């Protein structure tokens, strides 16, 4: 028996983020475009998209990754200001909820929650 939990290609409640030209950019709540579609607004093509620090925010969760396989990033490339900006966005969206930060995910099927590779801690 196959149970389909979701036909969504990803969690559409998520707020995606990416570091573009040194600045953290966030999707607007309700934006259901893929990160590649959304980042095209900033002139980001497929080749650059594959190298960007990207991720998403959900209640209690900040997920970092890069590339088409959602691999862990080198956290040393994320400045303290960028990290704080991402955490501040989480805290604005979900006041009183302390987020866990994760780095990289094991790519799974669309609609499933993908398992983080590295737990960075709770902030």
Structure description:
The structure is a single chain. It is globular, with a radius of gyration of 14 Å. It is of the alpha+beta class and 123 residues long. It has 3 helices and 6 strands. It has a 6-stranded mixed sheet with strand order 2-1-3-4-5-6, covered by helices on one side. The model is unreliable at 1-9 (pLDDT under 50). The N and C termini lie far apart (40 Å).
Total helices: the number is: 3
Q: Cα distance, first to last residue?
A: 40 Å
Mean pLDDT value:
88
Global geometry: globular
**Relative helix content:** 10-25%
Q: Ranges with pLDDT <50 over ≥5 residues?
A: 1-9
Strand order of the largest sheet: 2-1-3-4-5-6
What is the tally of beta strands?
A: 6
Helix and strand sequence? EEHHEEHEE
CA radius of gyration is 14 Å
Summing up helix and strand content along with how strands pair, one would put the structural category as alpha+beta
Portion in strands = 25-35%
What summary fits the major beta sheet? Answer: 6 strands, mixed
């Amino acid at each position: 028996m196959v149970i389909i939990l979701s036909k969504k290609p990803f969690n559409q409640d998520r707020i995606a983020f990416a570091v573009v030209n040194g600045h953290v950019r966030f999707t607007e709540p309700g934006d259901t475009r893929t990160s590649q579609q959304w980042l095209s607004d900033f002139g980001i093509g497929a080749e650059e998209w594959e190298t960007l620090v990207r991720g998403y925010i959900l209640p209690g969760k900040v997920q970092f990754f890069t590339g088409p396989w959602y691999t862990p990033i080198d956290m040393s490339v994320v400045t303290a200001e960028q990290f704080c900006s991402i955490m501040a966005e989480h805290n604005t969206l979900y006041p009183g909820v302390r987020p866990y930060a994760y780095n990289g995910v094991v790519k799974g099927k669309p609609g499933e929650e993908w398992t983080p590779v590295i737990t960075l801690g709770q902030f």
